[in-house]
Amino acid sequence: MSSLLHQLVTRQSEQRHSQTAIVYKQDKLTYGELEEASNRLAHLLKDAGCRKGDRVCFLIPKTPAAIITILGILKADCIYVPLDTSSPAPRLAKIIDACTPRYLIAGGPIAALLNELMSDESRFQGTEIGWMGEGKIESENFKARFSLDDLKSYSSAGLDYQNTTSDPAHILFTSGSTGVPKGVVITHSNVVHFIDWAVRYFGTKHSDRISSHPPLHFDLSTFDIYGTLSSGAQLHIVPTELNLLPHKIADFIRNSELTQWFSVPSVLNFMAKADVVKFNDFPALERLLWCGEVFPTPPLIYWMKRLPHVKFTNLYGPTEATIASSYYSVPQCPDDDRAQIPIGTACEGEELLVLDDELKPVAPGEVGDLYLGGVGLSPGYWREPEKTNAVFIQSPESPDPNDRIYKTGDLAKIGEDGLVYYLGRADSQIKSRGYRIELGEIETALNALNLAEECAIVAINTDGFEGVAICCAYVPLKDADVTPARLRADLNKVLPGYMLPARWMQFDLLPKNANGKIDRRVLRERFEQEAGNDNR
Ligand code: AMP
């Protein structure tokens, strides 16, 4: 049955009011509590002036309070925008500027970040602050319009909704090549379609115990949340501090008796490298899913050999097409480290097309551009019609201008087996630790520091945890005291940690190609050579 995303929790609270919905460390929240707390927040937001279509940003670490906030915003007919609590204030300010929110709801240990964000009064005209953390928050820069205590005086009764399934539910900001993050608008029906298919395909049920690992600003997190709410299962939020401790993640899967794990492959790779999975480990685990980047075959073999009772599925898809567009369940453990795992076939209602420059299908086995169509396609980028029109184009096979396909920027081929294989990127977008990064965003930030005559960012493959290493080549500004440590420290003030280059190389002049452009291929070779020397 088609519904709005927040109606999933209402339905579950009617059927299993006192069953646990969310587990985080020692905290547990039942479906009834989740429903009532989010209703209260929705009533409060409406009372405080929120109207259909208003954007509400939230800056709350991944906790039950964040999930209540998401549902409360949706129930107030608004659009939620998750902000990364580990991102520096200048980058968050760009996102807030772009979506002109009615409210910024904050919570958790983020007071310093919030204070820095609010130091520019003019920037936040029309945006008020709500506080979902414990106690009161005070600062010379802002006053919260409401706090957690105020929620108690609001009704927990259900609301009438104005939104329909084609209205936006959330905007997820991803790295933008010109230095400004792009907001991908996702509707209720985009998510509901994927969830409906996934719950059926994976057989998700109310006795399931589902991991919640990716951060809330990353679209993979929406699968965990709404997949759980749709099936009345339990969502087990993985504390972020476990991320660098592979044996603790293994303990978490074991002790929480998870039945489903879903994450980017780098986490699984990291755990395999640390050899923290025992033979026949995690007896409750039924399925292990990954998405977001290639899971190299050797660590996949490691996992499959140890967990013969588990179903392993590769999900593929960009944020612009909502969570995943294709899937491939690996039928048996590959016997060759070099075997390539396909991204498979389209999920129900989705379409994968491998096309040439003239938008004609390429022959099987040939490399082409991967386009996506179907029910997951976002309406486009938030207030960016040019960027939207550049990649969301009319389907070549349809006379209907509303029949669109999305150019992913990925290269692919259709194999002899009829399955789709991912072959890399056609541009300078990369994945590092599962994070989507436009190298252009780092370059723009570096140029803005005014410490380099010239600079270029390239990425090289490594067999480390990140999968790729971000490399910076630079020519220091004359007479300036420029060192990698200084560049890194200054970049850290404007970019999140996962975007910082790991390798640096100083030049007198950057190498150029015949057109006079920076020769990135040569730069990559130089960094690869250096990495090879380091490993020797
Ligand atoms: P994001 O919007 O962060 O989900 O990133 C989307 C991009 O991640 C895709 O366009 C691909 O380049 C890459 N990606 C996603 N899933 C996979 C996968 N299963 N295998 C290989 N690359 C993937």
3D structure, described in words:
- 29% of the residues lie in helices and 26% in strands.
- With 536 residues, the protein is of the alpha/beta class.
- The mean pLDDT is 94.
- The longest helix is centred in the N-terminal third of the chain and has 17 residues, at 31-47.
- It has a five-stranded parallel β-sheet with strand order 4-3-5-6-7.
- Helix 1 packs across helix 2 (31-47), helix 4 crosses helix 5 (111-117) and helix 10 (265-273) crosses helix 11 (297-306).
- The chain has four domains: 27-185, Rossmann fold (3-Layer(aba) Sandwich), CATH 3.40.50; 192-344, Rossmann fold (3-Layer(aba) Sandwich), CATH 3.40.50.12780; 350-424, Luciferase, domain 3 (Roll); 433-534, GMP Synthetase, Chain A, domain 3, CATH 3.30.300.30.
- It binds adenosine monophosphate (AMP).
- Residues 174, 219, 291-294, 314-319, 343, 408, 410, 422, 425, 431, 436 line the site of adenosine monophosphate.
- Adenosine monophosphate is lined by residues 174, 219, 291-294, 314-319, 343, 408, 410, 422, 425, 431, 436.
Content-based structural category: alpha/beta
**Spans with pLDDT under 50 lasting ≥5 residues?**
none
Q: Tell me, rounded to a whole number, the average pLDDT.
A: 94
Query: What's the CATH architecture name of the largest domain?
Result: 3-Layer(aba) Sandwich
Largest sheet, order of strands side by side? 4-3-5-6-7
The CATH homologous superfamily of the largest domain: ANL, N-terminal domain
The fraction of residues in strands falls at: 25-35%
Total count of domains: 4
CATH class category name of the largest domain: Alpha Beta
Distance between the termini: 59 Å
Cα Rg: 23 Å
Share of residues in helices: 25-40%
Largest sheet features:
5 strands, parallel
CATH topology of the largest domain: Rossmann fold
Hetero groups in this structure are: adenosine monophosphate
Count of helix runs: 15
Strand segment tally? 27
Q: Which of globular, elongated, flat, extended, rod-shaped describes the shape?
A: globular
